[in-house]
Fold:
Amino acid sequence: MRWLKLVLLIGAFAAFHEARTMSQKVIVVGNSAELRSSILNAKPGMKILLKPGEYEGGLFFQNVKGEPNNPIVISALDPNNPPVIKGGGECLHFSEVAYLEIHNLVLIGARYNGLNIDDGGSFDTPSHHIVLRNLRVRDIGPTGNCDGIKLSGVTNFHSENCTIERWGDGGQGIDMVGCHDGIISNCILRFEDDKGQGIQAKGGSSNIRIFRCRLEHAGSRAIQLGGSTGLQFFRPPLKAGQEHAEARNLTVEGCTIIGSMGAVAFVGVDGAIVRFNTIYRPKRWAIRILQETREEGFVPCRNGVFTDNLIVFRSDEWAEGGVNIGPFTAPQTFTFARNWWFCLDKPEQSRPKLPVPEKDGIYGIDPKLRDPEKGDLSVLPDSPASKIGAHAFVEAKQRK
Structure:
């Protein structure tokens, strides 16, 4: 009996040692073949580090799965000299993955998407627990529905400190279809005012928070809450007899939005909060309220909340009083409060045309931006708008 206990003890120790060794295993790769092989054979806890240099894109991987507290990490060996994955249909594509982290990579020149993560079409088993950190994605497409970062059927995810520039003229910088329980934070998106969208959450997406992001001319609609999705792509799948929406429970706060035809678009969404953001010189509208998916069972775009935002605009770049409302929507269900509206060239024309009365709105008073021509949209120490806008977001969190 003692001998058996000793064998079991030794076996348990060996298994623990093997697991610990695996959790600490680091693999350094220097070319595309080594990278592909390492990811295909990755185990929980493995860290794959890419040497500086250029790697061939078009890399597809399936069932790459870490474990709780033991993720698989793909990152740069030297974050100050990040590797470049270039070209292919998609620089990187991961399907049916879990507990995966991707850090400090540059993804450029793909024909369709820079980074694509999806559920492999198995809607009941989403990819989950994904972390994207310090990625730089640029020059994707350039034409058509091509995205910088595309997420389809992904839950429990966080994208932070990523920079996305120049994606497809009909695509998105960050596109989320049927994604849930996610965070987009401290990301920068840059493009042109009239091409594609910046950040989009649609296809049944829910419980997503976008905060502290900066969007500079990030497409025709800088942030799109909802959208238009083929019914077969909703996650979870639509069920007859239920109320449907393109998205629910989305939050945008502490963001800075410069340019774009429309800064924030509520599109077929049921419940979205937009607060403590700074919107500077949108080319037509600060807000759009639209309904593009009109099939049976879909509720009208409703229950939006727009509060404590700072909106600075010019009269010659302003249409419909800054608010565009489409048919089949429920604008009367929206709430507006404590927003600061200022028309640069004609302060007397600062009041927007809102669908419902605003509570405690402020109109026509200069917020005293620090240096907007150089991109600094914080406010001077004597600003009367110190408690409104993106610069006030931290303080707002502390007050709660």
